Amino acid sequence: NAGVTQTPKFRILKIGQSMTLQCTQDMNHNYMYWYRQDPGMGLKLIYYSVGAGITDKGEVPNGYNVSRSTTEDFPLRLELAAPSQTSVYFCASSYYFSDGYTFGSGTRLTVV
Amino acid sequence: AQSVTQPDIHITVSEGASLELRCNYSYGATPYLFWYVQSPGQGLQLLLKYFSGDTLVQGIKGFEAEFKRSQSSFNLRKPSVHWSDAAEYFCAAGGGADGLTFGKGTHLIIQP
User: Fold this and answer.
1) Is A32 helix (H, G, I), strand (E, B) or coil?
2) 3-state class of B76 per DSSP?
3) Which of A47, A60, B10, B34 would bridge B92 by S-S if both were Cys, CB 3.0 to 4.6 A apart?
4) What is the three-class DSSP state of B71?
């Protein structure tokens, strides 16, 4: 049972480049979330999904996009990367929203 | 606005001593409450959660937390810490499918 798998683990982007952060879960969880973690700031919600085909914005969605075509996958797309998007990104999932989340191990992104 | 406050950025505790990490929340109604732990370079792991009922909840790794409605608090405790407990601890709260609000974290240092 792999849980929540995020790829890549590390990435360096140049300003203006685009990339997709991958997130896959094998637990048949309905709810999936993308958070970013900045030092001393806790975690901020970027986007979330309550099921395949349904996504919604979180607290800090600007500069990002998501899709949820299957229950398992919830990729996060960065368009026109900016230095402000330098962060650690975490994907998380849960079966019910009241359950605790299972987190992936994160993607450390640096935009230079 | 919903918020979670962890007043202590850093806490240093001697190995074998007791531990209490503070968490206060501000929500319209009693939210679901969680504590997570994050080891360096890792994702977050759920320690325990509170929904309703008994205000003292037990979690993994010997941790417990007490919900106090009158103080809007959900403090995490452990009777005797081990060096392996050194990590970042996050309190989180949520009321529905739109994700959890996280505190900024408390960094726990264990002195030998």
Assistant:
1) strand
2) strand
3) B34
4) helix
Q: Which residues pair with B24 in a beta bridge?
A: B5, B73
Instruction: Enumerate the residues of chain A whose CB falls inside 8 A of the CB of residue B105.
Output: 40, 42
Q: Which of A27, A36, A43, A47 to mutate to test the interface with B (most CBs of B within 10 A)?
A: A43
Half-sphere exposure of B46 (CA within 13 A, CB side): 18
Q: What is the dihedral of CA A30, A11, A20, B44, to 10 degrees?
A: 10
Closest-CA residue in chain A for B9? A40
pLDDT tens, position by position, B7-37: 999 999 999 999 999 999 998 888 899 999 9
Q: Report the length, in residues, of chain B.
A: 112
Q: What is the pLDDT of residue B30?
A: 80
Q: How far apart are the first and last CA of chain A?
A: 36
Q: Which CATH number fits domain A4-111: 3.40.640.10, 2.60.40.10, 3.40.30.120, 2.30.33.40?
A: 2.60.40.10
